[in-house]
Amino acid sequence: SGSFYPDQAEQSTQVKAALLPLIGITASLGQGIIHTADGPLHVHRIQAMSIMLSEGNLWPRWVPYFHLGLGYPIFNYYPPGVFYLGGLLGLIGIEAATAFILISALAWILGSVGMYALARTFLPGKAALLAVALWAYAPSRIYEVWDQGSLPQMMSAALLPWLLFALMRMSAHPTRRMAALIAVSLAGIVLTHIPIAYISGLYAAPASVIFPLWAVRHTPRAFLKRFLPVAGGLILGGCLAAIFLLPMALELHYVGASTNNDEREYFINYFDTTVLLPTDVFAQPRPFDLTDLKFDLPTTLGLVGGVLSLLGVAGLLKKGKYAIAAILVIALFFTILMLLEVSLDIWLTIPFFRQLRYPERFLRMGSVFVALLGGSSLLLVPKRWENWGLAAALPLVIVASLPLQYGKPGTIRMDHLTALDEIQFEYATRVWGTTSYDEFDPNWGQGIYRPGEVPEPDQYKTDPLRLVAFRLDVMQQFPALNAIESDSSTIHVTTTEPRPVRFHQYYFPGWKATLDGKPVRVYAEDQWGLITIDVPEGEHTIKLHYAGTTIQKIGTAITIGSVGILLLLVFSRHRRTTVNEESPRIGTRAALLIGCAVILFALANRLYLMPKTHWLRHQSPPDHPAYMETPVHQLFGDELELLGYTLNDEDVSPGDWLAVTLFWRPQHPITAQYRPIVQLVNLPLTDAWAVSEPSEPGGGSTLGHTSDRFFSDPHRFKVRDNAPPYVGRLSVQMVNVDTGEPLRLPDGSDRLLLPPLIRIHGTGEPARQRLNIRVGDLAELRCASVERQDDQLVI
Questions:
Q1: % of the chain with per-residue pLDDT over 70
Q2: Given this model, what pLDDT does residue 611 score?
Q3: Residue 406, Cα to own-chain centre: how many angstroms?
Q4: pLDDT at residue 615 in the model
């Protein structure tokens, strides 16, 4: 961003903004990649992109060896941006796992510099640097790196500050390069992560109108002169992404994602389990317990960010920046609203919005507003004390994030990957085609074919893009049908009569074939939707290749033309702009001190704090978890011991949430899969008013769990709206996943009732004092009612 801020002192501060994430980046480095939910499958996608690019495919869409060697249109529907970047790194010899780490660090740095540029549009340099720290060490950023590992979401979130910055600057001072920055930022977001792109649209659309209106508030007639360049930049961004966006939208009906008729009902049932509770929005994450097998980072905007945001609102009002304060507060309020249960109707109203699945994605946008408001808190500090204010706030933000960076057990080595490694990864994790929901299955067949093994698996090590005849047909129809592959795309077929020949590859529009050098029709057979070619009697040579569709080619042409326009904007002569003189910069000496302090702390954190101390984490004995409040020590069969529990509240109202965390310890290495069932039941055990029954406990699949570790098992459930004003108990069962049989307690019962009585409040009018009867010091009878039931009176 040096072209926007040409002053050398300002450029040096931008360097410090780029260095701020170094503490988190160094903490995440190790022998391999962090063991996250999505990290390994994204490494495999990078490897696939590298293979496809090395074969001369400049924009891959279909990967032949994905989905157990049957092929998958992964890059036609999932934005390929970060994988393309990783594939380019692969062409110069950088392995996929290393590329994953490098791109993750790049996103962290890129977003930090963008956050600094955005904050500097209305904040002084020191406040802008605090905003950078709040963004770089936001809980959602740490969650992304240490828990989820979604590389596309990391990069897309890093581009959000750049998009907002470009919209603000373009509205105030329209330039060609700022239009280019709008286009590149928007295209980058779309080409990396569709959910974040959709969310960013909810903010960018009103911003593209509000920012120009504010810029011309004294001359309203000039609105179109500011709005049209902004709109032009956004349109150019969409055109830049047309190479992906157009086929993704217009060819969606080719895959299973377009045929989910139960998607609305599924989302409604699933929504309650994914929203944040109001108490979670600004919660401070606590240190991890290294003995706990469960590792799930909390989703929150963070306590420090929340407190500094409140102070930041006061700081903006003190400086008379009322419009900025109002915009940021409204944007943050809307973000928080979308994280909570009350936003369900909004999620259901916006077209396709429920396909985002996780409300916590809004934390990526919320962290930008929290950073801007938190950085504004320095406006409350007198100018002569700004250095001291920054010196106090920066360590506070960083130290508050450190517990989130500790405790992740181990890393995964993914060196020297081959196509066979990816196929074996699919078998092991059931992540078909490297997608968690397998939503891109081509929908031509009656079912989805998943073979027990792929044909000649070892050959995928040296020939990852190999296309072969369907082996089951060759075995069953030999010698009437014989097929031999000579290279990746050439198959020699011999038949004793004309017949359709199936291949071990799904059909998808864009496949082309030649039979003895002449074009031949490619179609999908009815059973599995496999590529099929009608072959006459005799010996023939078939060549297959994926050539793409007309829509894909149109999208490519639009993108190429847009790139030409972008280059004209970037390299045309422009008037350089400078920073508002009312927003002072950081002195070079102060910036140097901050930079050195960050580097030293990063080294200390990586070399000493993480491997050699437990200052910010626990390591409990396996039978006494640090966060367990009430011990129980009850055996469930001879498999598991319920060590105890932590209950958040013993009073609840109908429609409210109840949360309890159980703590389990295996008695020996577990060889079966178990899942818990936790219910809020009435005293005679005839009704349940709330239930939690996940597919596996908090520590993941119980297979292989050993007695030297425990696992926390959190449950959150909503009490039924029609639950009566009464008391209940929490019932705990542990059920065998395969047989459905619960583990028995020593007394033969199939469940444990936890001791506390859970009071359910009534939703009607409180009972008034009608009687004045006391039974010793035990109870007071306030009122009574009598109802007739058949021939009885019930009091």
A1: 92
A2: 64
A3: 20
A4: 74
Pull the structure tokens for residue 767.
Answer: 């009972």
Do 739 and 703 touch, CB atoms closer than 8 A? no
- Altogether, the residues listed in the chain come to a count of 795
How far is the first Cα of the chain from the last one, in angstroms, to the nearest whole number? Answer: 78
d(CA 525, CA 444): 8
Give 386's strand partners. none
Give the tens place of pLDDT for each residue, 695-715: 889 878 888 889 999 999 999
How far, CA to CA in Å, does 401 sit from each of 102, 140, 297, 733?
21, 10, 11, 36
Q: How far is it, in rounded angstroms, from Cα 71 to Cα 422?
A: 12
Q: Which residues of the chain have pLDDT under 50?
A: 1-6, 578-583
Give the up-direction half-sphere exposure of residue 563: CA atoms within 13 A in the CB hemisphere.
10
Closest C-alpha to 465, from 25, 48, 42: 48
330-363 pLDDT, tens digit per residue, is 999 999 999 998 998 888 888 878 778 889 999 9
Rounded distance between C-alpha atoms, residue 537 and residue 773, angstroms: 100
Question: At which residue do the structure tokens 């009732």 appear?
Answer: 753
528 bridge partner residues: none
Q: What angle do CA 71, 73, 75 make, to 5 degrees?
A: 125
Phi then psi for residue 135, to 5 deg, are: -75, -45
Strands 657-666 and 711-718: antiparallel
- Rounded CA-CA distance 628/650 in Å is 16
Inter-CA distances, 119 with 123, 162, 328, 577, 752, Å? 6, 11, 12, 16, 55
Q: How far is CA 16 from the centre of its chain?
A: 28
Per-residue exposure over 493-516, b if at least 16 CB sit within 10 Å of its own CB, e if not: bebeeebebbbbbbbbbbbebebe
What's the pLDDT score for residue 695?
A: 87
Q: What three-state secondary structure class fits 681?
A: strand
Query: Residue 650 is encoded by which pair of tokens?
Result: 């013993």
What are the C-alpha distances in Å from 312 to residues 35, 121, 301?
A: 36, 16, 15
* HSE, side-chain direction, 13 A CA sphere, residue 456: 15
Please state, in angstroms and rounded to a whole number, the distance separating the CA atoms of residues 570 and 3.
11
Q: What is the pTM of this model?
A: 0.89
Per-residue model confidence (pLDDT) at position 601? 66
